[in-house]
Amino acid sequence: MKKDIINRILDILEETYPEAECALDHNNVFQLIVAVALSAQTTDVSVNKVTPGLFAAYPTAEALAEADPEDVAEYIRRIGMYKTKSRNIVSMAKMLVERFDGQVPEDYDSLVSLPGVGRKTANVVLSVGFGHQRIAVDTHVFRVANKIGFVHEKDVLKTELALMEVIPEERWSKTHHSLIFHGRNCCVARKPRCVECPIKAYCEGCEE
Question: What pTM was estimated for this model as a whole?
Answer without folding.
Answer: 0.92
